Amino acid sequence: MPHVPPRLHVLLARKARTAVVIRRGPSRSMATIGWDRDTDEFTVGQWMRGRIYERRCDLSPNGKLLIYFAMNGRWGSEARGAWSAISVAPYLKAKVLYPKGDCWPGGGLFLSAVEYWLNGAAGHEKLFDETRLKMTPKSPSEEVYGGECPGVYYIRLQRDGWTLKGYRAVSPTRGVTIFEKEFDDIWTIRKWAYESTNPPLGKGCYFDEHELVSPRGKEVIPCREWEWVDRDGDRLVWATDGKLFSGSLTPIGLAHERELFDFSGIHFSELVAPY
Question: What is the pLDDT along the chain (275 residues), one digit of tens a residue?
Fold first, then answer.
């Protein structure tokens, strides 16, 4: 069986120099890791056995709270086996818990530091709420991308500066939605967000690939192995092969590449949230 490195997805806080890395693998082991983007220090929050649907997650603008959707299949538990929750980033212990009981909709987005949208609110039952946050069932977007991951993820991408450029069918079982974000006057980041019923080994039914494009497409740098990428101030940050990297874009291409952290070196452990 070929080795599959941990899969990574990153949530950048919009108004703070923090982030949360969602690490998946092997199999049903998930972890949330805090990232200080000023110092590039990483702190493991908590682990769980199950599945966090990273494309249905979000960070509050100040980076203090995490909204997520998860499933562990314990259908007789108080969380009913699948749930939406809000926790103190980068931990998973719920401050707000909405048991769901299935994996249709779920998750959501922060509209501000004190208000959030719950995806498929009508299908949730609130178990408890230890916050003063306000929940709204009204989607922040007039566009509808379905009840699963794209229904949250595509709205989050556009909120965070990505422009939806179009959709194309790759095969009868695979389609791709294309997004772009300008890095500077020279380079644009292009994201290929796939939706597939027969994904490649190590990929889920939703996965991303990327490339860097110069003005008018004169030069294209394929970065198809990058599973996540974004702009972080003046630098480019991306995830591939279970590792997080940073670099800069110059007129002639990618430079000053640096490995920030190798997430293959951390392993499941029972951690307790400090609250």
Answer: 567 899 999 999 999 999 999 999 987 899 999 999 999 999 999 999 999 999 999 999 999 999 999 999 999 999 999 999 999 999 999 999 999 999 999 999 999 999 999 999 999 999 999 999 999 999 999 999 988 999 999 999 999 999 999 999 988 889 999 999 999 989 999 999 999 998 888 888 999 999 999 976 688 999 999 999 999 999 999 999 999 999 999 988 999 999 999 999 999 999 999 99
Asked if the structure places residue 274 within a domain, the reply is no
Q: What is the pTM of this model?
A: 0.96
Range of the domain at 68: 8-265
Report yes or no on 275 lying in a domain: no
Confirm whether 36 is domain-assigned. yes
Question: Is residue 105 domain-resident?
Answer: yes
111-115: which pairs have CB atoms within 8 A and are 24 or more residues apart?
Answer: 111/136, 111/140, 112/60, 112/61, 113/60, 113/61, 113/62, 113/64, 113/65
Looking only at the bridges linking them, the beta strands covering 51-52 and 41-49 are unpaired
Number of domains comprising the chain? 1
